[in-house]
Amino acid sequence: MKIRTATLVGFTLLGLAACNKTPADAPKASEPVAAAKPAAAPAPSADAEFEQLKTMTGVDACATLTTEKLKTVFPELTFTLHQALAPRMSGYMWDSRCSYRAGVGSIDFAKDAPTHTVDIYIGTVVSDARAKSNLASRAETAKSASNYIAQPELGPDAYTITDTGMARVFFVKGKSEYQINFSDLKTPNAEKVKKVIALAKAI
Q1: Which of 176, 137, 174 is nearest to 157 (CA)?
Q2: Is 36 inside any structural domain?
Q3: Distances from the Cα of 21 to the Cα of 13, 15, 18, 32, angstroms
Q4: What is the sign, positive or negative, of the torsion defined by CA atoms of 57, 58, 62, 68?
Q5: Number of domains making up the chain
Q6: Of 68, 100, 71, 70, nearest to 84 (Cα)?
Q7: How far apart are CA 58 and CA 181, in angstroms?
Q8: In Å, how far are 76, 110, 184 from 79, measured between CA atoms?
Q9: 33-65 residues labelled b (16+ CB within 10 A) or e (exposed)
Q10: What is the pLDDT of residues 1-44, one digit of tens each?
């Protein structure tokens, strides 16, 4: 009986000791709970190119190619402003566009249609290098077209493309990529190419 009594006493003491234990990471009653840390400040934007672009101003297409400059290339025509888009951010560039028309009312079966149109698109990017890289990429793709013509007089990778009734020229000035379109059904494509090149040199 003495052995049994001693065993029972031993189990009882172990049970009491287990009940009195607390988790190792729990704060003691006498220790204050640490205050919550303030939220970390938001990290600065990692897209430095986009942030820099927001501080810039795009090139205005209508101010770049005016009716007066059109008159130097087309003295026999009178162009009027048809549409204008002031510079605005569009993705990773500032985008601006301008459209001119001439000869409206000259076509009997389409009195509202012009005989000649000129459109200019200007995309201003963050650096000269970026603009040149973008144009080089476009030119590489365009080279597969049969109507592609390199135009080195307008700078590296400048080129023209023609299709039915229209000639387009692509080139770079500073941080801006330019595209000028000239349409006229009656003028031969070779002549239209000369006209868009002349417009590119006029701005």
Answers
A1: 137
A2: no
A3: 13, 10, 5, 20
A4: positive
A5: 1
A6: 100
A7: 20
A8: 10, 18, 13
A9: eeeeeeeeeeeeeeeeeeeebeeeebbbbbebb
A10: 444 444 434 434 344 444 444 444 444 544 554 455 555 555 55
At 73-120, the pLDDT tens digits run 999 999 999 999 999 999 999 999 999 999 865 655 555 667 899 999
For 74, other C-beta atoms within 10 Å of its C-beta total: 19
Q: Dig out the tokens for 79 from the structure.
A: 């162009």
CA angle 192, 194, 200 (to 5 degrees): 105
4 assigned to some structural domain: no
Is residue 84 one of the residues assigned to a domain? yes
Task: Please answer whether residues 69 and 32 qualify as being in contact, where contact means their C-beta atoms are separated by less than 8 angstroms.
Answer: no
Query: What pTM, to 2 d.p., does this model score?
Result: 0.74
